[in-house]
Amino acid sequence: MIATITDKEAFVLEIHHRLSDVYGRDIKYFHDLDPLSELMSALLSHRTTNHNSGQAFRNLKELFGSWEAVRDAPTDEVQAAIKPCTWPEQKAPRIQQVLRLITEKCGGLSLEFLTQMDVADARRWLEELPGVGPKSSAAVISFSNMRGKALPVDSHHFRVATRLGIIDAKIGEAKAHHVLENMLPPDFTAQEMYDHHQVMMRHGQKVCFHYKPDCRRCVLLDVCPTGQALVNKATTDTP
Q1: What confidence score (pLDDT) does residue 1 get?
Q2: Which end of the chain, C or N, has fewer beta carbons within 10 A?
Q3: Which residues contact 93 (CB under 8 A, 6 or more apart)?
Q4: 101 with 93: CB under 8 angstroms?
């Protein structure tokens, strides 16, 4: 039986299973960074491709060797190192500001103490830092070697969810994190939460494109109002 959009939790779970059949389950984590390094990676990734933010991250590690050295370096040198990502002139001082604040709060540069905290408390702590919102806090919890239970929502994930009618686009990506996470089964493991992020993101990257989504080969077409409307329009417009 096909779950309907009127039962959001069942609908989201069916979407999860269908996409998992396509993109896989128990997906390998793409990072094995400590929480602080993952936070730096998240700050660099804002509105930047993974390739470019990854290069900026590697530049920082190779040129400075430690986060303490990044914190204490001349800002223009940090800016030059992260030039591959967008807005390096904004991200360089922000990264240094965050590193200084963590040092002041914790007496050193480590976020390992987050592993001993409840996930909700850890996310609140992170989101008190400038420039750290729900996406970045979820990324630290989920993607780092903490391997915690949190759902990052990127632009691809958000686009798929809104086109399916799971959420209204007006809610915005920031609020969408908690709304979408709360629609998943409470007994989902951290791995299943990560899998959900991955399959939604990959579907947005490979099928549900921002421009000209490939609806005819989408495994969700029969439950996607946006896709059905686009296919119907294309059929009507064909001479």
Answers
A1: 44
A2: C
A3: 75
A4: no
Nearest one of 101, 124, 103, 129 to 114, comparing CA atoms: 124
Task: With CA atoms as reference, report the closest residue to 3 among 228, 230, 222, 232.
Answer: 222
pTM of the predicted model as reported, rounded to 2 decimal places: 0.89
AA letter at 19 = L
Sequence-distant (6+) residues with CB within 8 A of 163 are 208, 213, 224, 225, 226, 227
Joined tokens for residue 217: 């080969």
Question: What span, in angstroms and rounded, lies between the C-alpha atoms of 165 and 8?
Answer: 9
Neighbouring C-beta atoms of residue 32, cutoff 10 Å: 11
Encoding tokens for residue 151? 């759902």
Rg of the chain over Cα atoms, rounded to whole angstroms, equals 20
Cα dist from 59 to 49, 52, 66, 98, 136, whole Å: 15, 11, 11, 18, 20
- Mean pLDDT split into 10-residue runs, the chain, 239 residues: 68 96 94 94 87 92 95 96 93 96 94 94 96 94 95 93 93 87 94 97 96 94 94 73
Q: Which of 237, 149, 232 is closest to 197 using CA atoms?
A: 149
